[in-house]
Amino acid sequence: MQRRSFLTQSLSLPFLSALPTLQAAAVTPPLVLGAAWYPEQWPESRWDEDLKLMEQAGLRMVRVAEFAWSTLEPHEGQFELDWLERAVEMAAKRNLVTVIGTPTAAPPAWMTQKYPDTLLTEADGRKAQHGNRAHFSFTSEKYREFCARIAGVMAKRFGGNQNVVGWQIDNEYGRTSNDDFTRAQFQEFLKKRYKTLNALNEHWTTAYWSEAYTDWSQIPLGPSGNPGLFLEWKHFISETFRTYQHVQVEAIRAHAPKRQFITSNYMGWYDSFDHYILAEELDLVSWDNYVGRGHLDALKNGIVHDLTRGLKRKNFWLIETQPGFVNWQEVNNALDKGEARAMAWHAVGHGADCISYWQWRSALNGQEQYHGTLVGADGTPVPMYDEAAQLGRDFAKVGGAVGGTEPVSEVAMLHSYDSRWAVNFQRHNRNFDPVALLGSYYRPLRRQAQQMDVIHPMAPLGGYKLVVAPALNVLTEPMAKHLEEYVRQGGHLVLGPRSGMKDEFNSLWPMRQPGPLADVLGARVEQWYALDEDVPVSGPWGQGKATLWAEQLKTRAQGVEVLMKYGASNGWLDDQPAVVSRVVGKGRITYIAAFLDDALMAKAAEWMLRLSGVKPALGPVPDVVEVCRRTGGGKDVFIVINHSKAAQKVVLPRAMRPLLAGGAAVSLLNLPPRGVEVLSV
Ligand code: GLA
Ligand code: GLA
């Protein structure tokens, strides 16, 4: 009750009624700084003070209303949106555009009490309880009705609002439900996909362990059991979240013009669902980037930005990031002074056009009291506020030069959820982490080439000189054709270990790895081995070791070069090929059959880049300095970031203008600790 009175108490303030006519629309700048703001948690008389502080720090966007369902619809069918409209108008007056989140990650108590079917069922069969979030069942039709209604009501009110520039659907979805209705939906999904039980039984080899189904209703819910069932369970989750999202996209689009984007905030490597499928319908992908414990590891974080950018092969928004520290780690240490700014520029370098802090100010109560913020519980700035303000000045200064540009790369890494799921389901060596394998390719390639895209295997490949596919475990016929075409047209395809083992049903190919590409490669995997001990590997790249995984290769055609070989180990691998390569058409295909150590991967990367004719985007820089290039619309800029606590010097290949420092062109760049410069070419 008290909270509602906060929202209404200042209704009588005379300036409020005049706001809409006085106010010209706020404008989205080319580089956006913003924060998550929850006006419903504060008295309305406080709002303008917050917005003024935001304006002073150069913030230009607020993200509001996600989680505010019990304020927006306090009782079933009773909507209260006036407060939100006043918040949007007050923000605009302070030069802030608004992104509205639909509140569907937080179903209100009246709903879950009256309609318990809207609640999620945990794996152990218990119903979720109120008092947390994302406790809805992703299949519940009743819940979707409520979602469509609230999203529609909001869009109707704000679709015409010039100060609302976009919509965020829900928040970080991914939790699945284990109820009977979900199981029935899964069976329906399978029926549509396989048409007949015979087809399903065949593709899943259900003769195994007497798993054959004679009725659709016999099929259990994933994730355990048969690999075919497991992969379809993941496909079902993806399809269910796609339709879950679609219900809201449709409800919003009915009232919201195209100038308002629709996004949803995703979570990097998180693999509950296939993000490529869900991103399709969004106008913009955004994600929540938290270092959590420790410090920014630029390569470890950079790959996730690139992965996110690759979902739509377009720039993205960093719609949440930590203002210093989080509250959900074992040790919630703060980033060093200057590190959050470097981290923000690092994101921009990888294609972010918005950096938005979560959150502006923590609620006085609620689960996240300890999380980092820009203002304290007392409503005045904490030290991190000044760093955000510096970023605000940065963006104001160079936004024009960076806006409209995007990272461009001649090197791509292929990533697919099917392959990750398939490997993770049966790792065979528990330490074989497909994400770690991707990282082992990414790090040396990104460092040496200073560019990298991470994309889906079916994405257009024509523009790339080099394409690497570590552990492309699920390799379908169309994918194999697409990749072969890329090679024949002059590309260099490098497959990593465990590639080409499975078909789209997670069934083993009845030919050896790399399955449908084995003939093109002119070689095949004789046997794979999970390693308990490292195995020596040597050849023109130098000496190193295979770790965790090694496959014995055999050449089967003319012109297949054996590049690297295993040394003495288990007898099976001794002196056998570990890397082979073959010229095919105008291009080349290479197979690396083992998880290689970092030093050897660095040599491998050198070889790949040299052979493919890829040059570094800028040129040699100290190891702790990162270079990102963004181009487009006749602009060409380098973002150069010192990720260390010591000053660094960077010799430039030619004189360039330092846009942040200002002044004349320089050919030597002096970067202070955690310093950043934006260079105009
Ligand atoms: C047991 C079972 C077999 C098979 C093997 C695998 O012995 O009886 O069916 O699963 O393990 O090692
Ligand atoms: C996630 C959520 C936010 C908040 C932050 C805290 O990203 O989307 O609502 O809980 O974590 O770090």
Annotation keywords:
681 residues, alpha/beta, 9-stranded parallel sheet, globular, disordered N terminus, binds alpha-D-galactopyranose
Number of helices: 19
Distance between the first and last residues' Cα: 58 Å
Structural class: alpha/beta
Shape: globular
Our estimate of the beta-strand percent is: 15-25%
Task: Summarize this entry quickly.
With 681 residues, this protein is an alpha/beta fold. The longest helix has 27 residues, at 227-253. It is globular, with a radius of gyration of 27 Å.
Architecture overview:
By secondary structure, this protein is of the alpha/beta class. The protein has 19 helices and 26 strands. Strands 11, 12, 13, 14, 15, 16, 17, 18, 19, 20 and 21 form an eleven-stranded mixed sheet that branches. It has a nine-stranded parallel sheet with strand order 5-4-3-2-1-9-8-7-6. The chain has a six-stranded antiparallel sheet with strand order 10-22-23-26-24-25, with helices on one face. The termini are far apart. The protein binds alpha-D-galactopyranose (2 copies). The site of one alpha-D-galactopyranose (GLA) has 9 residues, from loops.
